[in-house]
Amino acid sequence: MKADKVVRSTCPYCGVGCQVLLNVRDDTIFRIEAPFDAAPNYGRLCVKGRFGADYVHHADRLQVPLIRKTPPAPGHRTPSRYPDDWREATWAEALDVAATGLGRIRQTYGPDAITANACAKATNEDNYLHQKLMRAVIGTNNVDHCARLCHAGSVTGLQLAIGSSAMSNSIAEMKDLECFVVTGSNTTETHPVISTFLKQAVTRNGAKLIVIDPRHTEMAGFATLWLRQKPGTDVAVLNAMAHVIVKEKLVNDDFIGQRTEGFSDYVESLEDKTPEWAEQISGVPADDIRQAARLYGQAHRAAFYWGMGISQSTHGTDNALSLTNLALMTGHVGKPGTGLNPLRGQNNVQGCSDSGGLPNVYTAYQKVTDPDTRHRFEHYYYSQDASRRLPDTPGLTVTEMVDGILTGQVKGWWVMGENPMMSEPNLRHAQEAIEQLEFFVAQDIFFNETNVYADVLLPAAAFAEKDGTFTNSDRRVQRIRRAVSPTGQARADWEIICDLAKRLEKELGLTTAGWDYRHPSEIWEEMRQLTPDFGGIDYARLEREGGVHWPCPSFDHPGTPYLFEEEFPSGRGKFYTVDYGTDSELPDADYPFILSTGRVLYHWHGGTMTRPSALNAIWPEATVELHPNDAARLGLKTGDWVDLSSRRGTITARLLVTGRSPEGTVFIPFHFAEAAANILTDNRIDQRAKIPDYKVCGVKIERAAEIPLDRAGADIPLEDRGAIKDMVSA
Ligand code: SF4
Fold first, then answer.
1. Is the CB–ligand 1 distance for residue 18 below 6 Å?
2. For the purposes of burial, counting CB atoms within 10 Å of the CB of 367, is it exposed (0-12), middle (13-18) or buried (19 or more)?
3. Distance of CA 222 from the midpoint of ligand 1 (Å)
């Protein structure tokens, strides 16, 4: 079929930020290709990027603004049914209801009684205006987003040690790596195109790959060395690697002397962290730990790549600090082919954080507590009233928002494009909180498990229906472009926010902070003027160059593919002593298995976009992954329906018997609402990063009491699904 037009944009799924060519005919995307001459993917796409964008045209997209017929009273907020509980409204009506409701909460309880979720799938410009509304109009820093739930451990650890939490090196360097460690990342399923470059480094460049992971991921099949630690024992393994590097004099004395501090205290702390000590804790043979330390320590260039397996933990900060210690002691940072590289999950989770969607910082991590920074933003926003002030104390994190509702501190919630009722740990806890809200505004492209609780629902445009920018995992700012008309009356998030802000300012009797943008390029221009690190990036340059890595302080600056060549943002890199310990809920006699959660290739996060796409036919249901020895002991086989229970609830799904997970560990994907993994997970958190532990809690498995035969695809034998066949035999 011949396209009416082909529009270059950026994939809406993961943080690789692949460039796509949307082939459009009759206002419909009918084919997606990739440009062969464009970074970061150079013609490569995974199944989600190539076939997963049909959700844009799905019949279930939200078409018109909706207002709840009977506003729920606090304590009695229940999920709505469509269409019975809703009435269609005009945009003016719906925005008036939203502004009146939020305004009333602010007037009655104060600005900090309102919290908001920014959106890692929305554009930088959408998220910048979202935080601007919360800070400049409502008057609170209560803004956060799902980065808290995926990489807060990495962010906190890296900020402590080196003062920057972004991925340090670029995707373009991956194919030429000499030695690299992948830990806590099922890269082939979570960042598929990155995994192709990493595999290329091994197969064509002879790179040494060390995988540290309890699961036998596909990357483990390419590894020189695979360390299979018990879940939650990462710190012990990493400390022991550091011990070996010190004892065998593989440290980089020049780098330590010139670029770091605190090494001698740190070295003392390693004295008893022998590989034998770590073997007892982690189950990894001491000799394998020695070999891994030598491979990493002896390499001229070596890099760390990690994912949520490291950060989503009660000791996520410690994990990131342990990796940073290793990079600092060997000098494997600040050069091409090295670095500390947390692989960011959502398409724009890096950009959402960069745009100020966090409770303690404005754009590019400028602190809200810094008076000079704050005054600069006040001067810009409050040009019509110099007496107005921005809030100066950090706001609530996502996990604290939920607890804040339960304690009565939070009364109103504005959720833009996120689905906390799938992503929060211990969903019953989150549900109890949401029921207590006095007012709830949601903005989204579909109904989801969260926005069914809202008072007013604002239909948003999808990625292919609007203009803007995303920032991928390696800090590359790239364009998305409108290719098709918005569904029904859906509008771009930035347009919705501008109209909501104007109404709120009227409601609250405030002078305007400036909301008359005609195009996202004007919003980016405001961000650029307020953000030294974005100073050299504008839409004209993105048009010419395709993408630019920030920091990029001026138009004659080339951008920064790799960071820390001369120094760290904090000056010297700091070593931190990290002791092994655990706050996780460990297995016991009642709940004898460890539960770990994650993704499958064909789905994305809470499934809001992939489940209404063609991809759902390939993997339509949740599966409970169990080791063959455990299955044999329980008398279970692949395809059996099982109840999986923790202290917080039970889900029912079919069993997938595979050696991918170690004995004693169960793995389930978190994409499926009908068997939501977070019904089971625990809401205890890393105290510094406030990130929950999604990777370790105690569960038990029993043959299902009842078989849910009404589930989609439940009539097809599990082992007959093509995508599952390989895993059964793994
Ligand atoms: Fe999209 Fe990520 Fe797949 Fe690239 S690797 S096509 S960005 S989902």
1. yes
2. middle
3. 21
Residue minimizing CA distance to atom 6 of ligand 1: 49
The CB of 402 under 6 Å from ligand 1? The reply is no
pLDDT in tens, 497-552: 999 999 999 999 999 999 999 999 999 999 999 999 999 999 999 999 999 999 99
Atom nearest to 14 CA in ligand 1: 2
Please choose from 47, 193, 197 the residue to mutate so as to test ligand 1's pocket, defined by most ligand atoms within 8 A of CB: 193
User: Is CATH 3.50.50.60 what the domain over 152-342 is classified as, yes or no?
Assistant: no
Q: Which residues pair with 316 in a beta bridge?
A: none
Name the residue at shortest CA distance from atom 3 of ligand 1.
Answer: 46
Neighbours of 489 (CB within 10 A): 16
**Structural tokens at position 414:** 């504005």
What was the pLDDT predicted at 583? 82
Is the CB of 343 within 6 Å of ligand 1?
no
* Whether the CB of 193 sits within 6 Å of ligand 1: yes
296-348 pLDDT tens trace = 999 999 999 999 888 777 888 999 999 999 999 999 999 999 999 999 889 99
What's the fold here for domain 66-149+348-549? Rossmann fold (3.40.50)
The predicted model scores a pTM of: 0.95
Q: How far apart are CA 543 and CA 561, in angstroms?
A: 18
- Give pLDDT, residue 310: 83
Ligand 1 centroid to residue 190 C-alpha, Å = 9
Token pair for 466: 């609007």
Q: What is the radius of gyration, based on Cα positions, of the chain?
A: 25
Question: Which CATH fold would you assign to the domain 593-728?
Answer: Barwin-like endoglucanases (2.40.40)
Ligand 1 contact, 11 CB (< 6 A): yes
Place of tokens 């989801």: 448
Domain boundaries, the chain: 66-149+348-549, 152-342, 593-728
In sequence order, which residues have a C-beta less than 8 Å from that of residue 73 and are 6 or more positions away?
none
- d(C-alpha 340, C-alpha 126), whole Å: 29
Which residue's alpha carbon is at the smallest distance from atom 2 of ligand 1? Answer: 14
Question: What Å distances lie between residue 429 and 649, 663, 680, 683, CA to CA?
Answer: 11, 30, 11, 8
Nearest CA to ligand 1 atom 1: 49
CB 542 within 8 A of CB 479: yes
Cβ of residue 527 lying under 6 Å from some atom of ligand 1: no
Q: What are the tokens at 271?
A: 């004295």
